[in-house]
């Protein structure tokens, strides 16, 4: 069989399988005790009992509900970095608010405060920083800027579950934070997400909106002490997490430190051994990185697509994070690429190398030697 090192792969064993089987046997598959336990355990893991959490079926849902719970709607303005997954921007569009795209800091790939400041005249209601690749944004100056202007901060912490900036968990720095438990993420449920905040009212609003705006959850209606009556109090959605995904999350949470250790080991090996001309991901002393991704910058003049194809031929999966949003046909008519010089420069040379907890040092060495070979031939 030919060797293939996937770009990403969930890390699991029999424990995940038996946890899912337990839920199936329990007869309660939708939102219920496993989901509430997962929410509780995530808060314990984050180490801050003042946080509240609602488990959802995606980070996208968490971002959207955070905006809805903050009352974002037509006439409001929300700023996001142009280098992110489309989810961060689409949720703003779904609210009917005005979307502002900001450039990134070239080194960290996180939102550029300088770029945000250019929209000073715009009466921004919410900023959504993205902790790119698992590296926390420099949150202190951003929070200061936003607090001084009454701007709310919703952290897109899709990549950064467990990462800290100056000792504080990402997701718990702003007014609300959204985690992704999508299959490739540092904690994987297949699909899943969680919204966290210290604002109990915001979480309760999001919880109600996550299930049609109904005042009672199915679990409170269909169990032995349940009652059939419920009221629809708002135009809610169907974003609740089910027990099968939560069961996966509970097991993954127990392995979080082990999985992070493995990811960190591979990232450090890349750092030390990749060819000198490749620019490694940025590291900052005051943060802990969770290494969701390992995005490098290829040397100037090297054709990224040729490197991608060359590595694919050698059985190595890579990816690009991200095509800047202002380049997508849906968004491009509204934005001008020249306004995002750092995003453009990064996009030209960016390539994310395989990184997941199931990788061995031998795999990383194979990636490195293949890169040397491919760079020598393009
Ligand atoms: C930065 C960012 N935000 C949000 C999301 C959406 O996450 P989910 O797939 O859990 O909805 C992703 C998904 O990859 C992402 O990369």
Indicate the percent of residues in helices: 25-40%
Sum up the overall morphology in one term: globular
Bound molecules: pyridoxal-5'-phosphate
Q: What composes the largest sheet?
A: 7 strands, mixed
CATH hierarchy: architecture of the largest domain: 3-Layer(aba) Sandwich
Q: How many structurally independent domains? A: 2
Order of helices and strands: HHEHEHEHEHEEEEEHHHHEEHHEH
Evaluate the radius of gyration. Answer: 21 Å
Please identify which CATH superfamily of the largest domain we are dealing with: Type I PLP-dependent aspartate aminotransferase-like (Major domain)
Helix segment count?
Answer: 13
Structure description:
By secondary structure, the protein is α/β, with parallel strands linked by helices. It folds into 2 domains: 14-254, Aspartate Aminotransferase, domain 2 (3-Layer(aba) Sandwich), CATH 3.40.640; 256-377, Aspartate Aminotransferase, domain 1, CATH 3.90.1150.10. The protein has 13 helices and 12 strands. The strands form 3 sheets. Strands 1-9-8-5-4-2-3 form a 7-stranded mixed beta sheet, sandwiched between helices. Bound molecules: pyridoxal-5'-phosphate.
């Amino acid at each position: 069989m030919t060797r293939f090192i996937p770009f990403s792969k969930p890390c699991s064993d029999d424990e995940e399988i038996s946890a899912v089987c337990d839920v199936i046997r329990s007869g309660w598959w939708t939102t219920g005790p496993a989901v509430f336990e997962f929410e509780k355990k995530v808060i314990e893991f984050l180490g801050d009992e003042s946080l509240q959490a609602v488990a959802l079926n995606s980070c996208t849902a968490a971002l959207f509900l955070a905006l809805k719970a903050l009352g974002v709607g037509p006439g409001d303005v929300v700023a996001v970095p142009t280098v992110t997954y489309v989810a961060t921007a689409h949720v703003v569009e779904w609210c009917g608010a005005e979307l502002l795209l900001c450039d990134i800091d070239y080194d960290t790939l996180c939102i550029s405060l300088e770029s945000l400041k250019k929209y000073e005249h715009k009466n921004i209601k919410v900023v959504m920083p993205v902790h790119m690749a698992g590296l926390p944004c420099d949150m202190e100056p951003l929070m200061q800027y936003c607090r001084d202007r009454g701007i709310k901060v919703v952290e897109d912490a899709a990549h950064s579950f467990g990462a800290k900036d100056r000792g504080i968990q990402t997701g718990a720095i702003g007014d609300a934070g959204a985690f992704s438990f999508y299959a490739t993420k540092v904690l994987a449920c297949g699909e899943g997400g969680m919204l966290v905040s210290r604002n109990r009212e915001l979480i309760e609003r999001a919880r109600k909106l996550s299930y049609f705006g109904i005042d009672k959850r199915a679990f409170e209606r269909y169990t032995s002490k349940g009652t059939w009556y419920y009221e629809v109090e708002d135009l809610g959605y169907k974003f609740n997490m089910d027990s099968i995904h939560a069961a996966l999350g509970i097991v993954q949470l127990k392995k979080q430190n082990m999985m992070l250790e493995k990811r960190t080991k591979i990232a450090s090996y890349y750092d030390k051994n990749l060819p000198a001309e490749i620019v490694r991901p940025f590291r900052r002393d005051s943060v802990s990185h969770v290494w969701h991704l390992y995005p490098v910058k290829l040397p100037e003049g090297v054709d990224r697509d040729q490197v991608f194809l060359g590595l694919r031929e050698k059985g190595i999966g890579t990816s690009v994070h991200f095509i800047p949003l202002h380049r997508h046909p849906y968004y491009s008519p509204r934005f001008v690429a020249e306004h995002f010089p750092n995003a453009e420069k990064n996009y030209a040379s960016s390539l994310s190398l395989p990184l997941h907890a199931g990788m061995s040092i031998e795999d990383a060495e194979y990636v490195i030697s293949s890169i040397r070979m491919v760079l020598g031939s393009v």
